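Q: Structure tokens for this one, please.
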Amino acid sequence: MKEHVVLHKNDFVTGDSFLRKALIRFSRHRLAVFGLIMLLCIIAGSVFYPMKNQNIAFDLNFLAISQKPNAGHWLGTDELGRDVFMRLLLGGRVSLSVGFVSVIFSTCIGILLGGIAGYFGGKTDMIIMRFTDTVMCFPFLIIAMILVVILGPSLWNSMLAIAMLNWTSTARITRGEILYLRERQFIEADRCLGIRDSKILFSHILPNALSPIIVNATFNIANAIMTEASLSFLGLGVPLPTPSWGNILQDSSSLYKLQTMPWIWIPAGLMIALTVLSINFIGDGLRDALDPKMNL
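A: Here is the predicted structure, written as tokens:
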């Protein structure tokens, strides 16, 4: 039998609140803490460091073409003399933006559709969930490629394509949670008091269904970053000269660069792997921390 914890306003301020216990459980998950620290370092470097120096990522220096890592260029330069380290950081800003922004939109879509299906049920539930099942039947990456080809390769179109396809798991999870919560006594009391359905759904039910939704959104961020890297590697994501981790790899896919210029493609591959791994560690930690059956 699935156990739920009903959150109230006092739970956010009392010393023995559910959120406080969740924070303690998360802090004891070593891999999750390591992943959080690693992700924060990657975000800080990608977002803040290139702000004043981002033009360096685009500056052509024909006197420093294809240089190996050195004191002036920590990760060397590419075939056009551009600083690989700055392009890596700026590419991280782009890739992380695609991951986080697309998941915010897809999570909102999933919560809205799943919430309506779970709360109202009947034909509404059947129509929404059959549509969800239909979307899930198609290969994610292939449909994303088709959407990007139709819309045109760009940063915002990549976000839109991922968001339009990445909401299905959130919708199913939200629906499942609401099917359980709508039968609870505090919801029956709300109906007896004449509270509007929209307020019951968004103010009383959804806050108590957020735990699995947050965990799912965390894993979706990792999937979105991988999808953006795949699209960019195939030439359908963020177009050059704007760097992203995916198109840095795509730009280094020639046999000559793979053999003679590993300082260009190895850091980008490592950043994708570290970021996805860190986010997955955080997701595992959140799953355990937000589980009410877990003990301190």
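A few notes: The domain at 9-289 is CATH 1.10.3720.10 (MetI-like fold). The chain has one domain: 9-289.
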